[in-house]
Amino acid sequence: AGENPGGSPPQPGSAKGTLSEPARGILRQAGNIDPNPNYKIAQDIANRITEALNEATEADTKWAPQVRKLKADDDLVVSDGDWADAGKDMEGVRGAGQHYLDSLPQPPKDGSPQANADWWKGLDADQQAAWLSLRPDAVGAIDGLPATVRDEANRAVFDEKRGTYQMTLNGIPKPPANEWTWITAGMYPSKVHTDEWMQWDKKYGDQYRHLQSSLKGMESIQKRFDATGQNNLPEAYLLGFSPEGNGRAIVANGNPDTAAHQAVYVPGTTSNLSSIGGDIGRMENVWRTATDAADGKPVSTITWLGYDAPQDIVKDSPFSHYANDGAPAFNRFMDGLDASHTGDSDPHR
C-alpha cells in the first residue's frame, strides 16, 4: 500500500473476485472507505480474473469432450487419412458448436450478394473466425464475400473432401482385370463384359467412377495451387468447390477483388470437375495475354464451373435448360464480384 505520510502505513490486505453484481456494489463502497488506497484496484483485478476463469471454465466444459476426440498421427506426414479424419472431427466440433453458431448473426436468407457482403463486414473478427471454422462449406459458397475469405473456406472443404474421397476409393475393390470376353451369337463373335465385371459394376461401378473422376479434377486444382509463382503465375483463389454430381469449381488467377481487369469463362458441353484442368489452363493463358496488355494493372481471370454443363453433344447440347438453370447462379456470382471489389473504380470485365 506504500507509505502514509504523517500516519501509520496502511496494512496489506486481500481481495476476492466475484461475479455477483450486488456483491460488487458492496465491495466498491467498501473500497471508497478502506484506508488502503490499492484495495479498490486489487478488487477490480480480482473480478477480472474471476470473469476470465469463468469464461475458460465454460469453454472447457463446451469444447473439451470434442477436443479429446481430436487424435492425430505422431508423424509429420499429412496424409489423405489425416484429412478424412479431420473432416470427421470437424463434424463433431461443428455439432458441439452449433448452439454458439446459432447465436451469431446469420447470413441473410436468399440475400443479394451486396447484402451478404454487408453481413460479413458487420461481424467482428471472432465471429468471422467462428463461421470459417465451423461452416467453411457455407462461407465458401456465399457470393459477395471477399475472395480471400471464400478461398480459405473452400480450401478447407477441398482438403477434407479430397482426403475422404481418396480413402473411400481405397476401400473399394478394384475392377476385375478380365473386363471383356467374347461370345458367339449366331455367325459372328461379340465382345461383352464378363459376369465377374458385371457383378462388380453393379455393386461399385457408379461410385468408383465418380470418385475417380472427382479426384482427377481435384488433382488438377491442386496442381494449379502448386504452380503459383511459376512463370510469374499469380496466387490462385478457390471461389467455389463441390465434388457432388458432375462437380463444381470456380478458380481465379489473381485476386478479383483488387483486379482492374477481370475475365470470366464459363465452360460448355462435356465440362465437369474431371476435365477442369484444361479449363483452368485456358484462363492461365488469358491471364498472361491480358497481363501483357494491362500496363501494369492487376488482372484476374476466372474459370466458372458453377453449373451442370451438357455432357453430350448430341443428347444434351441442343437443349437450353442447362443454360437457363445455371444463369441465376452465374448472375449471383457476377453481382458478387461487384460487391466484393475493393478497387477505386469498377473493374473492366
Main features:
349 residues; two-stranded antiparallel sheet; alpha+beta
Walk me through what this model shows:
- By secondary structure, the protein is α+β, with helices and mostly antiparallel strands.
- Among the domains are: 21-67; 84-154, no CATH class.
- It is built from ten helices and six strands.
- It has helices at residues 21-33, 39-67, 80-103, 113-122, 125-134, 136-140, 147-170, 195-226, 276-292, 321-340, and strands spanning 180-185, 188-193, 236-242, 248-253, 261-265, 299-305.
- The strands form two sheets. It has a four-stranded mixed β-sheet with strand order 3-4-6-5. It has a two-stranded antiparallel sheet with strand order 1-2.
- Strand 5 (261-265), helix 9 (276-292) and strand 6 form a beta-alpha-beta unit.
- Helix 1 packs antiparallel against helix 2 and helix 3 packs across helix 5 (125-134).
- The radius of gyration is 30 Å and the shape is elongated.
- The protein starts with 20 loop residues before the first helix and ends in a 9-residue tail after the last helix.
- The relative contact order is 0.08.
- The mean pLDDT is 89.
Our estimate of the beta-strand percent is 5-15%
Helical stretch tally: 10
List low-pLDDT spans.
Answer: none
Global morphology: elongated
Compute the CA-based radius of gyration.
30 Å
What is the strand arrangement across the widest sheet?
A: 3-4-6-5
